[in-house]
Protein backbone atom coordinates (compact mmCIF):
# COMPACT_ATOMS: atom_id res chain seq x y z
CA UNK A 1 0.00 0.00 0.00
CA UNK A 2 2.93 2.37 0.56
CA UNK A 3 4.67 1.81 -2.77
CA UNK A 4 6.69 -0.90 -4.49
CA UNK A 5 9.32 -2.77 -2.47
CA UNK A 6 11.98 -5.32 -3.26
CA UNK A 7 10.35 -8.76 -2.89
CA UNK A 8 13.17 -9.74 -0.52
CA UNK A 9 11.81 -7.17 1.94
CA UNK A 10 8.36 -8.76 2.22
CA UNK A 11 9.25 -11.05 5.14
CA UNK A 12 6.93 -13.53 6.91
CA UNK A 13 3.74 -13.30 4.89
CA UNK A 14 0.10 -14.17 5.43
CA UNK A 15 -0.59 -14.87 1.78
CA UNK A 16 -4.39 -14.63 1.89
CA UNK A 17 -6.46 -12.70 4.38
CA UNK A 18 -9.02 -9.94 4.78
CA UNK A 19 -8.81 -6.91 7.03
CA UNK A 20 -11.96 -5.39 5.51
CA UNK A 21 -14.67 -7.37 3.74
CA UNK A 22 -18.43 -6.89 3.30
CA UNK A 23 -20.70 -9.07 1.19
CA UNK A 24 -24.45 -9.46 0.92
CA UNK A 25 -23.82 -13.20 1.37
CA UNK A 26 -22.58 -12.57 4.93
CA UNK A 27 -25.09 -10.15 6.47
CA UNK A 28 -24.13 -8.96 9.94
CA UNK A 29 -20.60 -10.38 9.62
CA UNK A 30 -18.93 -7.44 7.91
CA UNK A 31 -15.26 -6.79 8.56
CA UNK A 32 -15.56 -3.03 8.81
CA UNK A 33 -14.04 -2.04 12.16
CA UNK A 34 -10.58 -0.43 11.79
CA UNK A 35 -9.81 -0.91 15.50
CA UNK A 36 -10.37 -4.66 15.31
CA UNK A 37 -8.44 -4.82 12.03
CA UNK A 38 -5.47 -3.14 13.70
CA UNK A 39 -5.76 -5.55 16.63
CA UNK A 40 -5.60 -8.50 14.25
CA UNK A 41 -2.60 -6.98 12.47
CA UNK A 42 -0.84 -6.35 15.78
CA UNK A 43 -1.42 -9.95 16.84
CA UNK A 44 0.10 -11.22 13.62
CA UNK A 45 2.97 -8.75 13.83
CA UNK A 46 3.64 -9.70 17.46
CA UNK A 47 4.23 -13.30 16.40
CA UNK A 48 6.77 -12.26 13.76
CA UNK A 49 4.47 -11.50 10.83
CA UNK A 50 5.67 -8.79 8.46
CA UNK A 51 3.24 -8.76 5.52
CA UNK A 52 -0.44 -9.41 4.84
CA UNK A 53 -1.95 -9.84 1.39
CA UNK A 54 -5.60 -8.76 1.46
CA UNK A 55 -7.65 -10.50 -1.22
CA UNK A 56 -10.73 -8.26 -0.90
CA UNK A 57 -11.47 -7.10 -4.47
CA UNK A 58 -13.34 -4.12 -5.87
CA UNK A 59 -16.80 -3.44 -4.46
CA UNK A 60 -16.59 -5.44 -1.22
CA UNK A 61 -15.48 -2.77 1.22
CA UNK A 62 -11.73 -3.15 0.80
CA UNK A 63 -11.00 0.40 2.18
CA UNK A 64 -7.57 0.74 0.64
CA UNK A 65 -6.93 4.22 2.01
CA UNK A 66 -7.47 2.89 5.54
CA UNK A 67 -5.19 -0.06 4.74
CA UNK A 68 -2.43 2.34 3.69
CA UNK A 69 -2.80 4.29 6.93
CA UNK A 70 -2.64 1.08 8.99
CA UNK A 71 0.43 -0.14 7.12
CA UNK A 72 2.25 3.12 7.79
CA UNK A 73 1.22 3.28 11.45
CA UNK A 74 2.30 -0.29 12.21
CA UNK A 75 5.30 -0.50 9.90
CA UNK A 76 3.91 -3.52 8.05
CA UNK A 77 3.61 -4.45 4.41
CA UNK A 78 -0.04 -4.66 3.35
CA UNK A 79 -0.92 -5.59 -0.22
CA UNK A 80 -4.40 -4.80 -1.55
CA UNK A 81 -6.31 -6.28 -4.46
CA UNK A 82 -8.30 -5.09 -7.39
CA UNK A 83 -10.48 -7.54 -9.27
CA UNK A 84 -14.03 -8.86 -8.96
CA UNK A 85 -15.42 -11.74 -6.89
CA UNK A 86 -18.24 -14.12 -7.85
CA UNK A 87 -21.38 -12.32 -9.05
CA UNK A 88 -23.35 -13.58 -6.03
CA UNK A 89 -21.43 -11.22 -3.74
CA UNK A 90 -22.60 -8.04 -5.49
CA UNK A 91 -25.69 -5.98 -5.96
CA UNK A 92 -26.74 -5.51 -9.60
CA UNK A 93 -25.85 -1.80 -9.35
CA UNK A 94 -22.20 -2.51 -8.60
CA UNK A 95 -21.90 -5.18 -11.29
CA UNK A 96 -23.64 -3.09 -13.92
CA UNK A 97 -21.31 -0.23 -13.18
CA UNK A 98 -18.08 -2.09 -13.89
CA UNK A 99 -18.56 -5.23 -16.00
CA UNK A 100 -18.47 -3.35 -19.31
CA UNK A 101 -14.91 -2.20 -18.72
CA UNK A 102 -13.29 -4.54 -16.22
CA UNK A 103 -9.83 -4.24 -17.73
CA UNK A 104 -9.85 -0.48 -17.25
CA UNK A 105 -11.07 -0.82 -13.66
CA UNK A 106 -8.36 -3.35 -12.83
CA UNK A 107 -5.54 -1.50 -14.58
CA UNK A 108 -6.49 1.86 -13.10
CA UNK A 109 -6.45 0.37 -9.58
CA UNK A 110 -3.01 -1.11 -10.22
CA UNK A 111 -1.41 1.88 -11.96
CA UNK A 112 -3.30 5.06 -11.07
CA UNK A 113 -4.49 4.25 -7.54
CA UNK A 114 -7.70 3.14 -5.86
CA UNK A 115 -10.80 5.24 -5.13
CA UNK A 116 -11.68 6.29 -1.56
CA UNK A 117 -14.82 4.13 -1.83
CA UNK A 118 -15.67 1.50 -4.40
CA UNK A 119 -18.26 3.37 -6.40
CA UNK A 120 -18.31 2.73 -10.15
CA UNK A 121 -16.06 5.11 -12.07
CA UNK A 122 -15.03 7.15 -9.03
CA UNK A 123 -11.70 8.95 -9.64
CA UNK A 124 -8.62 6.96 -8.63
CA UNK A 125 -6.35 8.55 -6.07
CA UNK A 126 -3.78 7.44 -3.53
CA UNK A 127 -2.59 3.88 -2.89
CA UNK A 128 -2.35 1.31 -5.64
CA UNK A 129 -3.50 -2.29 -5.61
CA UNK A 130 -0.81 -4.97 -5.94
CA UNK A 131 -2.68 -7.99 -7.27
CA UNK A 132 -5.78 -8.96 -9.22
CA UNK A 133 -8.31 -11.14 -7.34
CA UNK A 134 -11.01 -12.96 -9.30
CA UNK A 135 -12.97 -16.19 -8.81
CA UNK A 136 -13.78 -19.46 -10.50
CA UNK A 137 -17.19 -21.11 -10.46
CA UNK A 138 -18.33 -24.17 -8.54
CA UNK A 139 -16.78 -27.21 -10.27
CA UNK A 140 -16.28 -25.21 -13.44
CA UNK A 141 -15.79 -21.84 -15.12
CA UNK A 142 -19.16 -20.15 -15.54
CA UNK A 143 -19.81 -17.12 -17.75
CA UNK A 144 -19.06 -14.59 -14.99
CA UNK A 145 -15.83 -16.38 -14.10
CA UNK A 146 -14.79 -16.50 -17.75
CA UNK A 147 -15.42 -12.76 -18.05
CA UNK A 148 -13.43 -11.80 -14.96
CA UNK A 149 -10.60 -14.26 -15.58
CA UNK A 150 -10.20 -12.97 -19.13
CA UNK A 151 -10.14 -9.36 -17.91
CA UNK A 152 -7.59 -10.34 -15.27
CA UNK A 153 -5.35 -11.89 -17.93
CA UNK A 154 -5.42 -8.70 -20.02
CA UNK A 155 -4.77 -6.54 -16.94
CA UNK A 156 -1.86 -8.79 -16.00
CA UNK A 157 -0.42 -8.39 -19.48
CA UNK A 158 -0.58 -4.60 -19.13
CA UNK A 159 0.75 -4.35 -15.56
CA UNK A 160 2.62 -7.53 -14.63
CA UNK A 161 0.48 -7.92 -11.50
CA UNK A 162 -0.13 -11.47 -10.24
CA UNK A 163 -3.59 -13.01 -10.44
CA UNK A 164 -5.09 -14.58 -7.31
CA UNK A 165 -8.14 -16.80 -7.81
CA UNK A 166 -10.81 -17.79 -5.31
CA UNK A 167 -11.73 -21.42 -6.04
CA UNK A 168 -15.29 -21.98 -4.87
CA UNK A 169 -15.01 -24.70 -2.19
CA UNK A 170 -11.62 -25.53 -3.69
CA UNK A 171 -13.04 -26.76 -7.00
CA UNK A 172 -12.24 -26.11 -10.69
CA UNK A 173 -8.55 -25.48 -10.10
CA UNK A 174 -7.50 -27.34 -13.22
CA UNK A 175 -10.12 -25.59 -15.33
CA UNK A 176 -9.02 -22.17 -14.08
CA UNK A 177 -5.34 -22.96 -14.65
CA UNK A 178 -6.10 -24.19 -18.16
CA UNK A 179 -8.04 -21.04 -19.07
CA UNK A 180 -5.52 -18.59 -17.63
CA UNK A 181 -2.28 -20.30 -18.59
CA UNK A 182 -3.00 -22.39 -21.66
CA UNK A 183 -5.71 -20.38 -23.39
CA UNK A 184 -5.00 -16.81 -22.22
CA UNK A 185 -1.22 -17.07 -21.99
CA UNK A 186 -0.63 -15.99 -18.39
CA UNK A 187 2.67 -17.46 -17.10
CA UNK A 188 1.84 -20.09 -14.46
CA UNK A 189 4.11 -18.48 -11.88
CA UNK A 190 1.92 -15.34 -12.06
CA UNK A 191 -1.17 -17.29 -10.91
CA UNK A 192 -2.15 -18.13 -7.32
CA UNK A 193 -5.05 -20.51 -6.72
CA UNK A 194 -6.73 -20.21 -3.32
CA UNK A 195 -8.64 -22.60 -1.06
CA UNK A 196 -6.91 -25.76 -2.24
CA UNK A 197 -7.43 -27.23 1.25
CA UNK A 198 -11.22 -27.02 0.97
CA UNK A 199 -11.20 -29.84 -1.57
CA UNK A 200 -8.36 -32.03 -0.25
CA UNK A 201 -8.07 -34.45 -3.15
CA UNK A 202 -4.34 -35.29 -3.34
CA UNK A 203 -4.50 -36.37 -6.98
CA UNK A 204 -6.16 -33.14 -8.09
CA UNK A 205 -3.82 -31.03 -5.97
CA UNK A 206 -0.81 -32.66 -7.59
CA UNK A 207 -2.23 -32.18 -11.09
CA UNK A 208 -2.79 -28.50 -10.32
CA UNK A 209 0.75 -28.16 -8.97
CA UNK A 210 2.11 -29.74 -12.16
CA UNK A 211 0.74 -26.79 -14.14
CA UNK A 212 3.30 -24.58 -12.37
CA UNK A 213 0.87 -22.24 -10.56
CA UNK A 214 1.13 -21.32 -6.88
CA UNK A 215 -1.18 -23.16 -4.49
CA UNK A 216 -2.57 -21.26 -1.48
CA UNK A 217 -3.66 -23.24 1.56
CA UNK A 218 -5.79 -20.82 3.55
CA UNK A 219 -8.79 -20.58 5.82
CA UNK A 220 -7.43 -22.41 8.89
CA UNK A 221 -9.56 -23.76 11.73
CA UNK A 222 -12.59 -24.49 9.55
CA UNK A 223 -13.22 -27.99 10.79
CA UNK A 224 -16.24 -28.48 8.52
CA UNK A 225 -14.04 -27.78 5.50
CA UNK A 226 -11.47 -30.46 6.32
CA UNK A 227 -8.76 -27.83 6.44
CA UNK A 228 -6.45 -28.14 9.46
CA UNK A 229 -6.47 -31.87 9.98
CA UNK A 230 -5.57 -32.69 6.37
CA UNK A 231 -3.26 -29.75 5.81
CA UNK A 232 0.00 -31.41 6.81
CA UNK A 233 -0.71 -34.52 4.73
CA UNK A 234 -1.49 -32.46 1.64
CA UNK A 235 1.56 -30.25 1.97
CA UNK A 236 3.86 -33.20 2.68
CA UNK A 237 2.67 -35.00 -0.46
CA UNK A 238 3.22 -31.94 -2.61
CA UNK A 239 6.67 -31.35 -1.16
CA UNK A 240 7.58 -34.99 -1.82
CA UNK A 241 6.47 -34.53 -5.43
CA UNK A 242 8.81 -31.57 -5.83
CA UNK A 243 6.32 -28.72 -5.50
CA UNK A 244 7.48 -27.19 -2.21
CA UNK A 245 8.39 -23.94 -3.95
CA UNK A 246 4.78 -23.34 -5.04
CA UNK A 247 3.05 -23.50 -1.64
CA UNK A 248 1.61 -20.54 0.25
CA UNK A 249 -0.11 -20.24 3.64
CA UNK A 250 -2.84 -17.82 4.66
CA UNK A 251 -5.64 -17.16 7.12
CA UNK A 252 -8.62 -15.95 5.01
CA UNK A 253 -10.55 -14.25 7.81
CA UNK A 254 -13.88 -13.34 6.19
CA UNK A 255 -16.32 -12.80 9.07
CA UNK A 256 -16.43 -10.66 12.19
CA UNK A 257 -16.86 -13.82 14.27
CA UNK A 258 -13.47 -15.08 13.07
CA UNK A 259 -11.66 -12.09 14.55
CA UNK A 260 -9.43 -12.82 17.51
CA UNK A 261 -11.32 -10.17 19.49
CA UNK A 262 -14.52 -12.18 18.91
CA UNK A 263 -12.86 -15.36 20.18
CA UNK A 264 -12.23 -16.62 16.69
CA UNK A 265 -8.87 -17.91 15.42
CA UNK A 266 -7.85 -14.49 14.14
CA UNK A 267 -4.91 -13.69 11.93
CA UNK A 268 -2.35 -14.78 14.53
CA UNK A 269 -3.61 -18.40 14.42
CA UNK A 270 -1.48 -19.03 11.36
CA UNK A 271 1.72 -18.40 13.33
CA UNK A 272 0.67 -19.47 16.83
CA UNK A 273 -0.90 -22.81 15.94
CA UNK A 274 -0.51 -23.98 12.36
CA UNK A 275 3.14 -23.11 11.82
CA UNK A 276 4.39 -25.01 14.92
CA UNK A 277 2.36 -28.06 13.87
CA UNK A 278 3.65 -27.93 10.31
CA UNK A 279 7.23 -27.36 11.46
CA UNK A 280 7.15 -30.58 13.49
CA UNK A 281 5.92 -32.47 10.44
CA UNK A 282 7.79 -30.82 7.57
CA UNK A 283 10.76 -29.07 9.16
CA UNK A 284 11.43 -25.41 9.74
CA UNK A 285 13.16 -24.69 6.42
CA UNK A 286 10.20 -25.82 4.32
CA UNK A 287 7.65 -23.96 6.41
CA UNK A 288 9.77 -20.80 6.37
CA UNK A 289 9.92 -21.03 2.58
CA UNK A 290 6.10 -21.16 2.46
CA UNK A 291 5.97 -18.00 4.57
CA UNK A 292 8.88 -16.00 3.13
CA UNK A 293 10.58 -17.13 -0.09
CA UNK A 294 7.49 -18.44 -1.90
CA UNK A 295 5.33 -15.33 -1.28
CA UNK A 296 8.21 -13.10 -2.37
CA UNK A 297 8.09 -14.78 -5.78
CA UNK A 298 4.33 -15.22 -5.99
CA UNK A 299 3.42 -11.59 -5.32
CA UNK A 300 6.20 -9.93 -7.26
CA UNK A 301 5.09 -7.65 -10.07
CA UNK A 302 7.06 -8.49 -13.16
CA UNK A 303 6.77 -5.09 -14.85
CA UNK A 304 4.52 -2.08 -15.19
CA UNK A 305 3.78 -0.03 -18.30
UniProtKB/TrEMBL annotation:
InterPro entries: Metal_Hydrolase, Phosphotriesterase. The lineage of its organism: Bacteria, Bacillati, Actinomycetota, Actinomycetes, Pseudonocardiales. Keywords: Hydrolase, Metal-binding. Belongs to the metallo-dependent hydrolases superfamily. Phosphotriesterase family. Its cofactor is a divalent metal cation. Zn(2+) 2 binds at residues 133, 166, 195. The modification N6-carboxylysine is found at residue 133. This is Phosphotriesterase. Binds 2 divalent metal cations per subunit. GO terms for molecular function: hydrolase activity; zinc ion binding. Gene3D superfamilies: Metal-dependent hydrolases. Zn(2+) 1 binds at residues 16, 18, 133, 252.
Amino acid sequence: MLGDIDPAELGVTNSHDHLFFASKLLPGQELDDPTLAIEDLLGFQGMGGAAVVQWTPFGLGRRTHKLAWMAEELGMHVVAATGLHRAAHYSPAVLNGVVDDLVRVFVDDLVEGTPPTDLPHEPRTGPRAGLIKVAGGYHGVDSHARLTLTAAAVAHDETGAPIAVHLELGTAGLEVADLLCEKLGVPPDRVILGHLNRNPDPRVQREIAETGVFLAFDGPSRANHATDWRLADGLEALVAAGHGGQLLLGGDTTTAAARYAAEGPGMRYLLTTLVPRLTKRLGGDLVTAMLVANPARAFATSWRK
